[in-house]
Amino acid sequence: MEQAVPHERQPVTDAMNSLATVGLGLAGVLAGVPVAAVAYGASAAGPVKMPQRWWLGRPARPALVVATAGSSGVAGAIIGASMPLTFALPAYWIFAVLGIGLVIIDARCRRLPHRLTGALWASSGLCLAVSAATGGDVQPVVRAAGAGLATAAILFVIALALPGQLGLGDVLFASAITFTLGWLSWSAAVFGLLAGLLTQGVVVLAAKVFGREQATFPMGPALFIAWLAAVALTA
Question: Which domain, by its residues, includes 44?
Answer without folding.
Answer: 4-234
